[in-house]
Specification:
Length: 287
């Protein structure tokens, strides 16, 4: 039975498929579950967020629970209280802890000392809630995950890593094309045109992630050949989706024509954060 959700690897393949199917049930009947009745969830944001913040706060509410949102600077963490002590205290007050921060080690430390489930809301290394929602979007669009190919083109970042984790569990073939300087360790380097061949979806993410601002010029130069535009999308399957976890920079990592075009799944992906995370919360906290 899953305790924490830090990388996505905590789920079995069967559990992942169960969460995806449950997410689609909850999407079809949004207020049908009260799984969090009488329960509170602390949501700690040490970094900005639109989708994760709103989808978790709304999702906890829709499940009958109460979300305690704690933004950067509001906890004593900002004044040096340790992740360990924060975990020990929050565990005595709430039924789960979600945390968005920089170093992945902070989330791991919180989980080591918490006696309630801990959910990674994004770290430098992983974004498992995004991967979960994206597998839900693929399942919704294609009716199955079996035999699907997803091509990720761009920075070898936390989202790319979480797509590889979720894809491996879900049975989706994930090909990653990144510049060698920005590729994930241990992931073979392929050209964008090779990655997208036969793909059911072509995915990209921002070129300058939170924390990379000082390296922006070098990143933009390295990633320029990796833009998701109509020319690249046309090399995938004729029914291929264009995917982006957002926020986007139209004209940079993705063309405006693709982001706002009829093949874009970006807005459905954002919505599916809500449904997928509600299903995850049910699994972690449901009686
Ligand atoms: N995709 C994503 O995590 O969006 P936010 O940073 O707005 O939460």
């Amino acid at each position: 039975m899953i305790t924490h959700f830090l990388t996505g690897e905590e789920l079995t393949a069967e559990e992942l498929r169960g969460v995806i199917e449950r997410a689609l049930e909850l999407k079809a009947d949004r207020l049908s579950s009260r799984a969090l009745e009488g329960k509170s969830v602390a949501l700690v944001f040490e970094k900005p967020s639109t989708r994760t913040r709103v989808s978790f706060e709304t999702g906890v509410h829709e499940l009958g629970g109460h979300a305690v949102v704690l933004r950067e600077g509001e906890l004593q963490l900002a004044r040096g209280e340790s992740p360990r002590d924060t975990a020990l205290v929050l565990s005595r007050m709430v039924h789960a802890i979600g945390i968005r921060t920089g170093p992945h080690e902070v989330v791991v430390e919180v989980a080591e000392h918490a006696s309630v489930p801990v959910i990674n809301l994004l770290t430098r290394d992983h974004h498992p809630c995004q991967g979960l929602a994206d597998m839900t979007t693929l399942r919704e669009r294609f009716g199955t995950l079996d035999g699907l190919k997803l091509a990720y083109v761009g920075d070898g970042n936390n989202v790319a890593r979480s797509l590889l984790v979720a894809g491996a569990l879900a049975g989706v073939d994930v090909a990653v094309a990144s510049p060698p300087e920005l590729s994930l360790p241990g992931v073979p380097v392929v050209e964008p045109t090779e990655a997208v061949r036969g793909a059911h979806a072509v995915y990209t993410d921002v070129w300058v992630s939170m924390g990379d601002e000082e390296d922006a010029a070098r990143r933009r130069a390295l990633l320029a050949p990796y833009r998701l535009d109509d020319e690249l999308l046309q090399r995938a399957r004729p029914d291929a989706l264009a995917m982006h976890c957002l926020p986007a920079h139209p004209g940079e990592e993705i063309s405006a024509a693709v982001l706002y075009g009829e093949r874009s799944a970006a807005w459905v992906q954002a919505e599916n954060r809500l449904h997928a995370q509600k299903a995850l919360l049910e699994l972690l906290l449901g009686s």
